[in-house]
Amino acid sequence: MPRETAQAAFWNRVARGYAAMPMRNPEAWEETLARVTAQLSPGDHVLELGCGTGSTALRLAPRVAAYTATDDAAEMVALTTARGADTHGLHPLHARPGDGSLPPGPFDAVLAFNLLHLLPDLPAALAEAHALLKPGGLLITKTPCLGGRYRVLWPLVAALRLFGKAPPLRFLTPRTLEGAITAAGFTIEARADLPRRPPSRFLVARRS
Predict the structure, then answer these.
(1) Domains of the chain, with CATH numbers?
(2) Considering the entire predicted model, what is its pTM?
(3) Per-residue DSSP letters for 118-172?
(4) pLDDT tens for residues 93-117?
(5) Pairing state of beta strands 66-71 and 90-94?
């Protein structure tokens, strides 16, 4: 079982309250799900990194052969397990990139939603995702990009972190995010901002 990181400690503490909150932008989430579904096949084996409360996993798991939903926070995995007890093909797992706890694969697709800006070592996590994919497999992500002009939000985020109301995060731009993904050996095939402001960059990238 992974040791508790600073990120996991934050999400373990807020998990129940986070699960009870209404979704901020359901329209963007539904469009994201539609775009992801279009990339998946019924026979696929899928790995999700940072599954959170399992909302996305519950919608996507019945559409594929096997769906492993992982999270760094044990409380999030417990929520996903409870919510997905009757969901075909769903396998919740307490695991994260970087410490050898992720299942070996290979997978047809690796998914990461609202996660990459939170990782302490983004290049290492992307390299691990690349290694877990079959040749030609897909990395599908959506990442808040708060770099560039949105760095004006940094004082607010810093204050929230000081009072334990926000986790550590990176202020990525769409360009730096895409650069990191291509440097890890992926070719980006599709992109969109869901929502556009501030941008949450949706990417479909194929293992080269």
Answers:
(1) 6-207 (3.40.50.150)
(2) 0.90
(3) G-S-HHHHHHHHHHHEEEEEEEEEEEE---GGGGGGHHHHHHHHHTTSS------
(4) 999 998 899 999 999 999 999 999 9
(5) parallel
